[in-house]
Design a protein that fits this description.
Elements lengths: L9 H13 L15 H14 L23 E5 L5 H8 L3 E6 L2 H13 L6 E4 L12 E7 L8 H11 E13 L3 H14 L8 H7 L14 E2 L1 H7 L5 E7 L3 H4 L14 H11 L2 E7 L1
Parallel strand pairs: 1-2, 1-4, 2-3, 4-5, 5-6
Antiparallel strand pairs: 5-8, 7-8
The structure holds S-adenosylmethionine.
Length: 287
């Protein structure tokens, strides 16, 4: 049984859009009183560096998983950009960037990020990843960071990525890993079983409630995937590499953040565990 399957629906996409427009993803505690100045965007970057040590040691963000040296002068599509931090890295790397998000709020914030950094050249526009308006074989590289798991028709979005990529082009995505400490222990067992939430909520509702937007009562849709499901999703692509990543924090805080016995484990073991039961899937594919 797949807990995370939801019916494909325009209605759900509308709800997803409405929710993210009201709650833009800033990695900060307060999403409601945003002053989008230079410091606001740098603050987001600092959180990303701190919370995703597997992705980079500093700028450019995601440099441990994206080879920016290959993207100079290339056509890049950045999907589900939120406040535009990935878009900024691509622009600085000299790529020709088209950046999309479902919500006007994200588009406004991403444009503001470019403006306060005096960056030009990116085309930033509202679009639905499930129905891209770009021609076939347009892009050399596509990134979908933390977004494919929030849309009802992820299968369609992945086939759209395939369609708009040039032959030999690459795409990468960040999605959530189902067989992770985060899903099974902290959410399913911690919230669902120990707190009895499974009496009133489905596993899918638990996932929506206790992942992104947990401080805002949860978002409309967050799906977790197994490696097998990812392989099937990206099966059209010539190659598909999947890595599991995380910070060591969820392991440090095991069994509970008030009893963080996980901190006693050797660093190398903790690091290895992040590659087995971490929350983050990094998917790298080639058309
Ligand atoms: C968790 S946020 C991630 C934002 C950004 N990638 C980041 O890491 O900060 C998810 C983003 O995906 C966008 N999104 C959701 N469904 C989408 C769709 N069908 N097409 C394009 N963007 C979508 C949301 O509006 C939101 O900005």
């Amino acid at each position: 049984m797949n807990f995370f399957k939801e019916k494909t629906s325009d209605e759900l996409t509308r709800k997803v859009k409405e929710w993210w427009n009201k709650n833009p993803f800033t990695y900060l505690m307060d999403n409601q009183h945003i002053i989008p100045d230079w410091a606001f965007f740098r603050n987001i970057d600092r959180k990303i560096i701190k919370w995703m040590p597997w992705a980079q040691k500093g700028y450019p963000l995601l440099s441990s998983v994206i080879d920016y040296s290959k993207l100079k002068g290339k056509q890049v599509l950045d999907i589900g950009i939120g406040t535009g931090w990935t878009t900024e890295q691509f622009v600085r790397a000299g790529a020709h960037v088209t950046a999309i998000d479902l919500t006007p709020q994200a588009i406004e914030l991403a444009k503001k990020r470019m403006e306060v950094n005096h960056l030009t050249g990116a085309t930033i526009q509202i679009a639905d990843a499930q129905a891209l308006l770009f021609a076939d074989n347009t892009f050399d590289y596509v990134l979908a960071f933390g977004t494919l798991m929030h849309m009802p028709n992820t299968e369609k979005a992945v086939s759209e990525i395939y369609r708009v990529l040039k032959p030999g082009g690459r795409a990468a995505a960040m999605m959530y890993y189902k067989h992770s400490l985060h899903w099974w222990y902290y959410i399913f067992l911690g919230k669902g079983v120990m707190r009895g939430k499974l009496f009133t909520m489905t596993p899918q509702e638990l996932s929506n409630r206790y992942t992104d937007g947990a401080y805002e009562e949860g978002n409309q849709l967050t799906k977790f995937y197994s490696k097998g499901e990812i392989r099937r999703l990206f099966s059209k692509f010539r190659s598909c590499q999947i890595h599991i990543y995380d910070a060591t924090t969820p392991i440090d805080h095991f069994p509970h953040r008030w009893l963080p016995l996980g901190k006693l484990l050797p660093e190398r073991l903790k690091y290895w565990l992040t590659t087995q039961i971490g929350q983050t899937l990094w998917i790298d594919v080639e058309k």
